[in-house]
Amino acid sequence: MGFFIETLLGGLMTGVLYALIGLGFVLIFKASGVFNFAQGAMVLVAALAMARFSAWAIELTGSMLFGNVIAFFMSVAFMIALAIAIERLVLRHLVNQELTTLLMATLGITYVLDGLGQTVFGSSVYTIDVGMPKEPLFLFQDVFEGGILLNPDDLIAALVGAALVAALALLFQYTKVGRALRAVADDHQAAQSVGIPLGRIWVVVWSVAGVVALVAGIVWGSKLGVQFSLSTVALRALPVVILGGLTSVPGAILGGLIIGVGEKLSEVYLGSFVGGGIEVWFAYALALLVLLVRPEGLFGEKHIDRV
Amino acid sequence: MNTKFAHGIRGLAVAGTMAFALTAPSIAAAQSEQFIPLLVYRTGSFAPLGIPWANGKLDYLKMINERDGGINGVKMVYEECETAYNTDRGVECYERLKTKGGGGSLFDTQSTGITYAVMDKAPLDKVPVMTMGYGRSDSADGSVFPWSFPLLGTYWTASDIIVQDIAKKMGGVDKLKGKKLALVYHDSPYGKEPITALQALARKHGFELMLLPVIAPGVEQKSTWLQIRQQRPEYVILWAAGIMTPTSIREAQATGFPREKIYGIWWAGSESDVRDLGATAKGYNAIAIQGSADYGKAHDDILKYVYDKNQGSADSRAEVGTVAHTRGMMIQMLTVEAIRTAQEKYGKGKAVTPEQVRWGLENLDISQARLDELGFGNLMRPVKTSCADHMGSSWARIITWNGDKYETTSDWYEADMSVIDPLVKAGADKYAKEKGITPRDCSKE
């Protein structure tokens, strides 16, 4: 029983980490109706920026706390600059084009960011140390043999993820920008016709997605180290947004938790029967099953066309 | 001689186009020049390992040109080709460079995937493939694989040596009986390669082998390490690469598994795998190809003839002497010695063809005295290849991360060939049958 609870907890924690990346997908999709293939590359670039800036800032200030704070704001500025560049160089020229064109553009942005990120920041492994505790905690040792394993860094990541979701939910539901974002997502032309500046909205949403990518990059980067493979983590978040619904922020969280728990339990309890290594495709299988029943995902908006 | 190369850079792409790499053109081959194609991966997931490895290879060639004026007056010319560790790009590099400069002397593909892809082409193109410490383990049988050279050890010999060191720590081989060892492996041909040998060793010594695959690239391993926490194996053998290695060590910490009880394969045993972990990885063991974690006179020569003249390939001279850089040097030393051996037979002071280099590889005889002369005396043990034995040596040592650097913590081990040889024979026979190859009769050569 103790091991089951441990696996369940591990899955929930991993799920929150997936959800952090899934949120980036959801944000862009909500605002532009485009699935942003570049989200993984944005996580990589954001983490690279944070790692390099923090190394410099910590050395300059001699303080890990101040160094990291300075590096965080520098990275935020960097991601906003990146969002502006993407809008100016790519998106602005694709207003009112087919969604497929925008989709392919995000694929192009992926390759550019992957390549530029490594060219500018280098291909070595970098460290982000924000002082997360690494040693595991063993709870309820009196009840379960060996106790229940809990990693404090996962717990902190989960709290950060929850705070981010709350902030984004408020942004979308209760602010003028949030309403504009939703209007743009609904119909570019209609939004423009009532005076919503499409370009500015895209900059805002890509900036917010950039900040979400930065938070995800800091959490994942402090866990794994920062290097090229970080961009592949985004692939693990794909089933999360399929399951939760591409337009729902809470859906990304719940989808993350379901996928996280599902893949861990499946790997541990079913993996040994089929030679192991099933957690990746199990997550996709789970997402596909949901699509059969609810094509818009668990929390996605139902799309109804009048004919 | 003017030799140019450019590091592959990640291509820029617009609107869904693919990334690509650029390499600068190399020099036209001349009779007094020997062309060496260099397949490298300076970008992509495995770049942290690939960069120092590639630098070590380049630096050694530069040093030979500078110190010795080449091999008997024949200068080394070379061209890098960026694979990003992708098999398709590796095959593209192979096709482009195999006939360049009078023929690529030999291909060190730096990837098991690329090796598998070019292995069947090499005999037709008459180009040797050298796979030091990687590739197909049964290709050590030269009677079936005349063009393949897994010099200095394979994943099967590495498996045996790791188990030998574990047994030593447990107090003897007999102590393995009834115990449990886990193999945490990259779920790819590379990661699966040691399974055959470890299963044979498990049968011989009576231990139980847990197999735990990790999906590439290995960024999510929680369920794997939770299973280890539950099953409590005595030791974990880690067949990882790239980001999988530090992630494994971090998860070991997160689940309370002692790092002293983890053994990584050599590709999971470079500084780039553990440097950022620092004290977290303290106690982590890895097998080194021969003595590649030690420092020798060859390093001093690289610094003196290359870095002191501002010709070094690495950004910092501190990279010289690191494990991955030293591996690169060892590979090129073997390449150079194979060419030298071929020249002895086919004409000193002349460039040799890839086919002649193959002969050189098959007739390598690098004694301890010669190793001392080359500056590798404490880094390697003698190597002697033959028609039947394309590996030439299986010596290796165990290294341990002390929180700051690797230390060599074992004496020299040689693989137990009574276990490995039958596996090599069985694998090679199967391959010969599948491909319709008639093995060479090495007793007549």
Automatic annotation (TrEMBL), chain A:
Family affiliation: Belongs to the binding-protein-dependent transport system permease family. LivHM subfamily.
Membrane-spanning parts: 12-29, 41-58, 70-90, 102-128, 155-172, 201-220, 240-261, 268-293
Record keyword Isomerase present: no
Pfam families registered for this protein in UniProt: BPD_transp_2 (PF02653)
Organism: Thauera terpenica 58Eu
Membrane topology: Multi-pass membrane protein
InterPro entries from the UniProt entry: ABC_transp_permease (IPR001851), BCAA_transport_permease (IPR052157)
GO cellular component labels: plasma membrane
Top-rank taxon, per record: Bacteria
Principal location: membrane
Keywords: Amino-acid transport, Cell membrane, Membrane, Transmembrane, Transmembrane helix, Transport
Protein name stated in the entry: ABC transporter permease
One GO term of the biological process aspect: amino acid transport
One term of GO molecular function: transmembrane transporter activity
Subcellular localization, as worded in the UniProt entry: Cell membrane
